[in-house]
Amino acid sequence: MATQAFRPCGDFKSSYAADQTIFPTAWSRNFCILGVVLVAAAPFLVDRYVLSLLIQIGYLGIAALGLNILVGFTGQISIGHAVFFGFGGFASCFLNGKAGIPPILSIPLAGLMTTAVGLVFGIPAARLKGLYLAIATLAAQFILLDFFGRAEWFTGGSNGTVADPVSLFGFKFDHDESFLYVVLFYVVVLYVAAANLMRTRDGRALVAVRDYYLAAEMMGVNLTKYRTLSFGISSFYAGIGGALYAHYLGFMSIEGLDISFSIQFLAMVIIGGLGSIMGTLMGTAFMVLLPQGVNFLARSLDGSAIDHALGLHEGLPFLREMAIGAAIILFLIFEPDGLAHRWKQIKAYWKLYPFSY
Amino acid sequence: MSIEPASMPAAAIPVEPAPLLAVNNLEVVYSDVILVLRGLNLKVPEGEIVALLGANGAGKSTTLKAISGLLKAEDGQITRGDVLFQGERMNGYEPDQIVRRGIFQVMEGRRIVADMSVHENLRLGAHTRRDKGVKDDLDMVYGYFPRLRERTGLAGYLSGGEQQMLAIGRALMTNPRLLILDEATEGLAPLVRAEIWRVLQRLKDGGQAILLIDKNVAALTRLAERHYIIEKGRIAWSGSSAELKADAALQKRYLGV
To answer: Is A58 exposed, middle or buried (0-12, 13-18, 19+ CB in 10 A)?
Structure first.
C-alpha cells in the first residue's frame, strides 16, 4: 500500500516500483529489523513475565492481523474472530493428539483447516454487508462455540484437550525463553506476507472492494470471490494464532472463546489502526498491556484510602473490562485512525521540529 | 417532421457488417415499477465511435449500465430485449464477466480508488488480464497521459481532470474491445477536455470502438461517426455527424444548442 508518509529530505521516489516497496525508507526497514533483533535478544535481557507478555502479543497479534485484513483492508466485519482463533487451537491439538502429527506441522495445518471453516462461513457472508454481515458472523461465533462444547472427539468437550510442546530435531520449545522464537518466526513471516499481499493483484482487489465495491466490480473483480477469500485469509491468521496459543499453554479449552474475546480482537484492530499492518501489532500490544497497567494501578493504590472507598480488590475484573471499553470509546472519539496514525504524527513532529509550520 | 425509429435515415455504411455491440428492443425497469427504457435499439460497429445524446433522465446512463451489467446495484433489471456483444447474449451476466468479455465502462464520477497510488489503480485495471502485455500497456497509458507518470502519492489527491485521465487510463488497462464512457468530460477545465478529446481521437485512429455520453455536441460531431438521440427511453433519432450538424431544427429541439 502506498501511503502518504513524511520522508526525510532528499529521499524522493523516482519510479512507481520504488514507491511500492514494503518499507518506504531504509530507516523504516532498519527499524523493523532492530525490533526483531531486540525481541530475539529479549530472553537474555528481561524476565519471564515480560517474555510471557511478548509471546501473548505475538500470537494475538497474528490473529488480529487476520481480522485487520478482513476489516481494515476488505471492509468486511466479523464479530466471531475468537472462535476461529479457538478452532485453530483445537485443530492443532486434534492433529497432534489424535493423528500424531508433530506440532511443527500441525500448526500450519491447523491454519489451513481454519481457512476451510472460514471459507464456509465466508460464503454467505460474502453476499452481505454492514449490519447484516455483523449478525451473520455473530452466528458463526455461536455455532462454532456450541460445536466446541459438543464435539468431544475434537475438542475434549468441557474438559479441554492437551497439546504437546513444539519441538524440532529433538529440541523442545517448552519454555517462554525458547517458545518466544517460535512465535517470533510466525510473526515475522506472517506480517511480511501480509505486507506483500497488499502489493499484489489480489491485495489491490481487496482494497478496491473496500473503497469502492462498484468500481472494483467494474474492473472485473469478482466481489463474492474476494469477500470470501478475505474471510479465508483472516481465518488462516486466526487459526495460526490459536494453534500457537494452544501449544504455548499446552492445553486448549473452550473457556475464554466467548464473544467478549471477539470484541477484544476488534478493539486491537481499531486501536491499532484499520488497514495498518504495523498498527495491528501496536493495537495488540496496547490491549495486552492495558490490563497489566490496570493491575499495576490497582496494586499501587492497594491499602490507600481510595482502595477502601472503592473496593478495588474485588472490583478488579470489572475495572479491567471497563478500562477496555473506555479505551475503545476514547480511541474512536480522539484517534479513529488508531495508534499507527498517532505514531506517524509523532514521527512527523520530530522530522519537522522545530519548524512544524 | 416525423421522428420515429421506423423513419430513421439509412446508415451511411453501404453493406452493414455484424456490429460489435447490438442492443435490441431493450426495456429496463427500476424497482419493479419505474419503466426507464422502452424498447431501445442501437448498434456499435467495430472500430467506430458512437455517441448517445439526449436530455437528463432520458435513459442514456441506464442504457450504458444495462450493457455493463451494473443495474443490479440500483435495483434495476432488463425486462425485455437483448444486449448482444460479438453475437453473444450478455443479459444477466455479472459485471466482472462482462469486463472479461471486453466491455469496459468508465462510469460517471470517475470512481478511482482514492487510497491507492496512480500505478496501483492502473494495475487494478489490469485485474482480469494474465498476459505479458500489461507493462507495455502501462507505458501506453503514460504515453497518452504523460502527467500521470509524474504523480506519486495517492490517487485521491489528484485533481479532477487527472482523476478522469486515470479513470480512462485504467479502462485502457483492461484492453477493452469496446470502451464505454459515461460523461467523458463533465466538470473539467477546457484544456483538460481538449486533452481528453485528443486522446479519444488517437484511440479512434488506433481502431478502438467507443460508446460515449457527453454534453459537448460540437466536439462529438468532430469525433463520433454516429449519434443516437434518446428521448423517454427510446431512440428518437439516429444518424451521422454530418446529418446531425446539418439539421439545426433537430439540434434545437433535442439538444438545445
So the answer is: buried
Distance from CA of A280 to the nearest CA of B (A): 19
Q: How far apart are CA A11 and CA B236, in angstroms?
A: 59
Cβ-Cβ contacts under 8 Å between A and B: the total is: 91
At how many degrees (to 10) do helices A277-300 and A176-197 cross?
140
Angular region, B232: left φ>0, alpha ψ -120 to 50, beta rest: left
Half-sphere exposure of B235 (CA within 13 A, CB side): 23
Assigned C-alpha cell, B89: 447474449
- Cα dihedral: A294, A299, A301, A306 (round 10): 80
3-state helix, strand, coil in chain B (%, to 5): 40, 25, 35
How far does chain A reach from its first CA to its final CA, in angstroms? Answer: 28
Spatial distance between the Cα atoms of B193 and B218, rounded to a whole number of angstroms: 13
Other Cβ atoms within 10 Å of A6 Cβ, number: 15
Other beta carbons within 10 angstroms of residue B17's beta carbon come to 8
Query: Could you count the other beta carbons within 10 Å of the beta carbon of residue A181?
Result: 15
pLDDT digits (tens, 9 = 90+) for B58-110: 889 999 999 998 888 788 889 999 999 998 898 888 888 899 899 999 988 87
Mean pLDDT of each 10-residue bin along chain A, 357 residues long = 51 65 73 86 86 93 94 89 94 88 90 94 80 88 91 82 79 81 93 89 88 82 89 95 92 87 90 88 91 81 71 71 82 83 78 68
| Nearest-angstrom CA–CA distance, A98 and A92 | 10
Mean pLDDT by groups of 10 residues along chain B of 257 residues: 50 65 91 90 92 88 91 86 90 88 87 86 87 87 88 84 91 91 88 91 92 89 92 90 86 74
Closest partner CB to A221 (pick from B96, B107, B123): B96
In single-letter form, the type of residue at position A133 comes to: L
Angle at CA of residue B17, ends B11 and B18, nearest 5°? 110
State which residue of chain A sits closest to B168, comparing Cα positions: A219
Q: Does B22 touch chain A (CB under 8 A)?
A: no
> Please, which residues have CB within 8 angstroms of residue A150's CB and are 6 or more apart in sequence?
A157
Please give the grid coordinates belonging to residue A347.
Answer: 514521527
Cα separation, A235 vs B197, whole angstroms: 48
b/e map of A186-203 (b: 16 or more CB within 10 Å)? bbbebbeebbebbeeeeb
Cell numbers describing residue A228 = 470470501
pTM: 0.80
Q: Is the ipTM of this complex over 0.90?
A: no
Q: Which of B67, B100, B127 to mutate to test the interface with A (most CBs of A within 10 A)?
A: B127
Give the C-alpha separation, B37 to B30, whole Å: 10
The pLDDT tens digits for B12-25 are: 555 566 789 999 99
Contacts of A218 in chain B (CB under 8 A): 68, 70, 95, 99, 104-105, 107, 111
Give chain A positions within 8 Å (CB) of B114. Answer: 211
Which residue in B has a C-alpha nearest to residue A209's C-alpha?
B113
Tell me the domains of chain B and their CATH numbers: 1-102+176-189+199-257 (3.40.50.300), 112-174 (no CATH)
